[in-house]
Write a structure and sequence with these properties.
- InterPro entries: Thi_PPkinase, Thiamin_PyroPKinase_B1-bd, TPK, TPK_B1-bd_sf, TPK_catalytic, TPK_catalytic_sf.
- This is Thiamine diphosphokinase.
- Keywords: ATP-binding, Kinase, Nucleotide-binding, Transferase.
- This protein is of the alpha+beta class.
- The chain has 2 domains: 10-129, Rossmann fold; 134-208, 3-Layer(aba) Sandwich (Rossmann fold).
- The chain contains 5 helices and 13 strands.
- The protein has a 6-stranded mixed sheet, with helices on one face. A 4-stranded antiparallel sheet has the order 7-12-9-10, with no helix packed on it.
- α1 (10-20) crosses α2 (31-38).
Length: 209
């Protein structure tokens, strides 16, 4: 799912998206502009279509891309509507691109969408050219990367209790992370994979590439 946030390196992001082999690519309104610049065809375009370039929209119709147009005044954001469509299409994982940068309110709400998706039983990630953002609640996760990658673990929604970090320079064992404190910032991967567990609570995990 490609949003209308910041893209700094189209070539690099294009390479990331194409490497994933997605079943469906959904452009959220102006996200279609990003895909057009990368030469990637969307399967669907969703939103009130107030941010998509006229030329891009006309070409998308010529190429038979299916679009869902909604009124500007609505309860759901365009991104929420895209998530609903992605789940209806049967996707059990949703990667979100161009979710960061630009307006801080949009950026924060897009990060919050990770929990919105997780509650629906679907696995979400935010992916950019420079970082990946994961969410973990009462569960464990292996993060793949490279030795030396920076990983930050941030309590989300409240305190995160029983946090265990392995294969990181600063390990933890059943540690309680207090919400709003930066104790878990800027850890370092010791191998090409690290392991994170939270017994009771929710974590945002940010891996710098």
């Amino acid at each position: 799912m490609v949003l209308n946030g910041e893209v700094k390196d189209y070539e690099k992001l294009r390479s990331i998206i194409l490497s994933k082999g997605y079943t469906h690519i959904i452009a959220i309104d102006g996200g279609a502009n990003h895909l057009y610049k990368m030469g990637i065809k969307a399967d669907y375009i969703v939103g009130d279509l107030d941010s998509i370039d006229k030329e891009v929209f006309e070409k998308s119709k010529e190429h038979g891309i299916e679009y869902y147009k909604y009124p500007c005044k609505k309860n759901e954001t365009d991104s929420e509507l895209g998530i609903i469509l992605a789940i209806e299409l049967g996707n059990m994982c949703i990667d979100i691109y161009a979710a960061l940068g630009g307006r801080i309110d949009h950026e924060l709400s897009n990060i919050g969408l990770l929990y919105y998706i997780l509650k629906k039983g679907v696995y979400p990630r935010i992916i950019s050219e420079t970082e990946d953002i994961y969410i973990l609640e009462n569960d464990e996760m292996a993060i793949e990367g490279k030795k030396g990658d920076i990983v930050s673990v941030i309590p989300f929604k409240g305190d995160a209790n029983g946090v265990t970090l392995r294969d990181l320079e600063y390990p933890l064992e059943e540690f309680d992370l207090e919400y709003s404190t930066p104790r878990g910032i800027s850890n370092v991967m010791l191998n090409d994979e690290c392991h994170i567990n939270v017994r009771d609570g929710c974590l945002l995990i940010v891996k710098q590439k």
